[in-house]
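User: Teach me something about this protein's shape.
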Amino acid sequence: MKFKQREWVAAAAIVALAAGLRLWRIGALPQALQYDEALNGLIVMKLLRGELPPLVSYPGGREPLVFYLQAAAVWLLGRTPGALRLPMALASSALVLGAGLLARELWGRKAGWLSALLCATTFWPVYLGRLGTRPVLFPLLAAFGLWALARGWRSRRLRHWIGGGVLLGATHYTYAPNLFVLPALLLIGAGVLVLRPAVWRARWRELLLAGGLAAAVAAPVLLFRTVIAPQDSARPQELAVFYAGQGAPDFARTVVAQSYLTLRMFVYKGDLEARHNLPGRAVFDIWLLLPLLLGAATLAAPRQRWRGLFVCTWLLIFLMPTFLAKATPHFLRACGILPLLFVVPALGLQRMQRWLQVHAGALAAALLPALLLALSCMLTVRDYWLRGFLETPAVLAAFDGEDAQLVLEINRQLGFGWLGTNLVALPDTHAAALPLWVADSLWDGSPYAQFLAAQPPAAGGRLERVATAQLPAQHALLIAPLADSEKLKASLHARVVRSTAGYVLVEWSP
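Assistant: First, the predicted structure itself:
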């Protein structure tokens, strides 16, 4: 299947649509910086100073690929939340292309375009690209890795098997669901061996090559987790809903409850966390419910046996991270299903179109699926942009908006850096009229300020640190903890400029 010129144009249009939904006001919304994003920023600053990480991972077992991508963006744009989020928004846009190519390879051109459109406009992957942490990188590499393997299956060309193995191995440097990649490949390979022995005899070399390359690329991070720093890998046990010594009745009830919570996220109630999702919004809206059911029926059809089994196996395996964990459903932990998820409603739309072609004519067959896609896209735009979701108190709280106010106060007083809406850090114009002092207790407890402050505190500079017991000896602005506000208000040297929930800004005149 060679791309024609109009196909390149269509692919570019779909990716442009995806990028537009993900990049709009990326520097301004949410006007905050979530704690994990702030920690990423501090690690990025270490990288830019030449302080390299351990072999493959940072403390806490966080995979390193995200930090190198964000370091490039911060080097180019400066220290802003948008600089941390831009690589992830671009990765989410590229995921659209990967999901479309994979579906196209498995089910043809039309399924590919429909899958790409669904991935471009569905709320979950759109919002996933707004978070400046690492989850979206896993489905991106997995989608292109699976596409390469699917092409290799058809073409028998070694470069496709090599590319697929390397990319799937590289997922181990992205996000936690990578723990399931090698088991998934082993299970799929075993399925080919048992169910299609003739195919195994014809392709065992390529299958072993891809699996071996994936294992070889993954080996450093697996070694790091199991031998070098096993304590950094304790988090999965902390999050698990199943536990040692659990009785059989409790175990059975937990299985039923987790299964229900996991399956209902597709059509009824999704992730409740405002940092991951519009709280409670299902993966698919009402307009895609019928295509989803028709697509599931299509996968179960006898003529789709092998491809359907492959898709269902992958989806079930990569639902396990959220099924096994507390707070199900959790859209970040379930991100491994994204490469193949949109194949299901895409096949349903195709099946609907074929039925309408026979029973209602070509016009209805063209219009009804297009209308459903358009209505679904409109719901995403409405919920995401028109209703100001990213500016709601729930999202600002989820992204630690109150904590980000300190750094906004610092930068606005200095007059440069990130001032709340800019993607690129504003240059220093030397506009600050008074030196700015910030209390040690506020600075030391704020990774947000440590990353986003327009310049680090320095003795004799425009921004300095001070212990509130040792107040500035010069005319200056002072940012102090709210607990000190009454003492400062009582001083003849202090004039309160602003008081917030977390700090007080005073003008100090000794």
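Now, about its shape. DSSP finds 22 helices and five strands in the chain. The mean pLDDT is 88. If you'd like, I can walk through any region in more detail.
User: That's plenty for now, thanks!
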